[in-house]
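Changelog note: in this version the structure field was regenerated for every chain. One regenerated record is shown below for reference.
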Amino acid sequence: MHESVSTLDAGTAALTGLIATLRDLPAGADDAVLIDQIRALEELKSAVAATQARLTARFAASQRQAQLDAGVPAERADRGIAAQIGLARRMSHFQARRYVGWAKILTTELPATFAQLQAGKTSEWRAMLVARETAWLSREHRAQVDTELAPRLEALGDKRVEAEAKRAACRIDPSGFVNRLSNSGNDRRVTLRPAPDAMTRLTALLPVAQGVAVYAALSRHADTNIASGDERGRGQVMADTLVERVTGQTTAEQVPVEVNLVIDTDTLLGDGTEPALIDGVPIPAATGRELALRPDAPRWLRRLYTHPETGDLVAMDSKRRLFTTGQRKFIALRDQVCRTPWCEAPIRHTDHTHPAQRGGPTSLDNGGGLCVACNIAKQAPGWHARPGPAGRIDLITPTGHRYTSRPPTLPGARQKRSPLEQQLLIELRRHAA
């Protein structure tokens, strides 16, 4: 998925050699030695994290200056920087953007905390907590928290570090802390993430008064129902009530659902066991059949066909500059999540992989689903993307590193189809073309 741009320099070669050395590290002769080795490796992880943060801050400063020198306006000169760090660290753009900000603060404005990390006396996460909880302070006030808290970091766990950093910041700048709390409501949002066993996590970040009020209302309703003989568990009643009140349905089971179901025909209509996908979430075959075929709820099935030989979805091209509604839906179902490696954020934009202004066609082969942040990062100077066969996208960053992204494997793509199905799919593709 990742290709380097050149032969390794001496520093990178030394790091690569260290990885090989650790892989072949002999285990200790007894348990006491094993504990010593585990502790030493933990301290090494912290030292490595400190070095990585220092290199990240240097890279960010260098890239920003390069963009400024190229004439990019100052307010846009940070585009694409966090995305490159995210690709290198195999993390999402969102995580990388936060990390880059914390790394800058940690290495330039929290020298005592950074020294503790370098010495292996605290973890990367705890050092980043100090950076996060002091990010709103002035440089002078942040230095005060750093001096006060750093000597105690080795003895504190995650929660204590967060609490102590907040307490010190509040004491040093109480008015600023109050202003921060008053503005935190701007961050309210609702998110949806997959969970195990065909479940999802619907999360709402709300001001504390609103969050408490919502939870209290659900709790009271659940207590009333249970007192009246409802046999469901308290959590089940609260969850069902939330669904009913948000959707306006009488019962949670009657909620209409658009099932973006990617499922093999044998699994849907027979007794196949190939797992299905619903909006990128893998579910058991039986669950997919139940959701698609149950008679007691409204439903829409969007049928997608794969080519019998290549496994690619049947597609059609367009000469229009903008993707059609059907193409956007098709790309979203094919890609499931943002196509930037390791991002996995929800798709918000349907992007021309090879830009339309440079002659890129408005086609499914040249289309990719991206989140907003990754699509913006891709517009920064020095970024290039090239479409490949079977939906592959090659992403080249300003440093020349290449990353390859492929759509997720769809259910049934590797299953052998009957001659009749193969002929049907060939005819469908012929008509679509």
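Spot check on this record: The first helix runs from residue 10 to 23. The chain is about 50% helix and 10% strand.
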